[in-house]
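Side project, low priority. Logging it here so it doesn't get lost.
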Amino acid sequence: MTQLPTQPLTSLLTPKRFLVVIPCRNAAGHLPQCLDSLLAQTFTHWQALVADDASTDETEAVVRPYLDDPRISFRSLPQRGWLMGNTLDALRGLDPNPNDVVAILDGDDWIRPACLERLWEAHEQGYDLAYTDHEIEGDGHSVGAQLMPGVPVRGQAWCFTQLRSFKGYLFSLLPDDTFRDASGQYFRAAGDLSLYLPMAELAGPAKVHFIPEKLYFYRIHEQCNFKVKRQEQLDNNWDIRSRPRLDQQTVHFDFTETVRDLDKPDIRRLGQEARARYPRPFTVRIDHVITPEERDSWRAYHGLWIEDGVFLNEEVSS
């Protein structure tokens, strides 16, 4: 059996940029604390977009002084996009690379100084969806937890507390209808479920990481969705959880290897060797090079996970 070649442990998904989207609507009274908390981060290599959802208050005027920092930009929709319309417009405008880290920080909340640093560390370790615990204003309760292995993501109690972050490739793999309700409109409530449940499925549980530190402060006020759109939030929740679950993605891997002259009895050992070479949670795609004449005999063996986090792919030589 062909041995896997030696190469440095430099993942194809090693993060290069940290992009922060700050969606807001009439948040002039809260944005200064939000942006000040961003400026106070111990991790400083970030870029932030304040994504205003056609506010009618002084949001733009409040943000303007912060634009002196070249890391911060601002855009305002000409008409209301609501929760997902506004957020998606911002994400698509940023057009993140597959290995960019993206976080969504609500404009009426704020983060503690180590928040971005902890998330960046998790993504450097190979996780593709990472989130911290949070503190809810006036409430000591938190639902933050690690995903339960072996249980479908949409069948688990909600555990994705804030601040949530993900690699750009996860967002790129989600079709537009992921974010639309049964009427075809973008979700106005429960948008976090429409993002993080399918992204967690695509990433796979081994690529999802919970940081049990309360690094995010969730503010309670009269315009929170769970107060003004509670029934719509619950309806959207049920809609999103009722949809077919997604398979773990097989497009983006941390490492790729190429093998030739593979014998079928050696497939399991090949996977075990690859798993031993790369620490978890890194994923590995092994491209098995075959001739066109061999395709039929190998059809039942390619396109499969041959070890935890190791995928055997077909590569046909010309």
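Brief comment: The longest helix spans residues 82-94.
Revisit when time allows.
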